[in-house]
């Protein structure tokens, strides 16, 4: 039973991350409040590690660390190429 619950939680986390990324890409403020570490730094929605100060200085509304954002952009490009509806 725990495996099913873990899978459901993983799916919910993935959908939440996708929604936040879509909102940020559209220039909207994410409706999900950013999570913060005990020292006040913002937490990456994908890996759970603190987002660097340099990234937040460059992208104040960042919700993912540099590595996770790069991985998400790579996945997005790959998905668009394979989609039959892509231009």
Kindly report the average pLDDT value.
75
Overall spatial form: globular
Total helical segments: 3
Order of helices and strands: HHH
- How many runs of DSSP E, i.e. beta strands? 0
Helix-residue proportion = 40-55%
Low-confidence stretches: none
* Largest sheet entry: none
**Radius of gyration using CA atoms only:** 15 Å
Which percent range describes the beta-strand content? under 5%
How far from one another are the termini? 43 Å
In terms of structural class, how would the helical and strand content be classed? mainly alpha
How many distinct domains? 1
GO molecular function, one term: zinc ion binding
Protein name: C4-type zinc finger DksA/TraR family protein
Keywords: Metal-binding, Zinc, Zinc-finger
Pfam family, one: zf-dskA_traR
Characterization of this structure:
The protein starts with a helix and ends in a 5-residue tail after the last helix. 54% of the residues lie in helices and 0% in strands. It has three helices and no strands. The radius of gyration is 15 Å and the shape is globular. It has one domain.
């Amino acid at each position: 039973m725990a495996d099913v619950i873990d899978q459901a939680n993983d799916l919910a986390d993935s959908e939440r991350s996708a929604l936040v990324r879509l909102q940020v890409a559209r220039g909207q403020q994410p409706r999900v409040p950013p999570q913060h570490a005990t020292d006040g730094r913002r937490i990456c929605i994908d890996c759970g590690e603190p987002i660097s100060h340099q990234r937040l200085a460059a992208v104040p509304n960042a919700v993912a660390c540099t590595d996770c954002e790069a991985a998400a952009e790579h996945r997005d490009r790959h998905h668009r190429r394979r989609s039959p509806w892509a231009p």
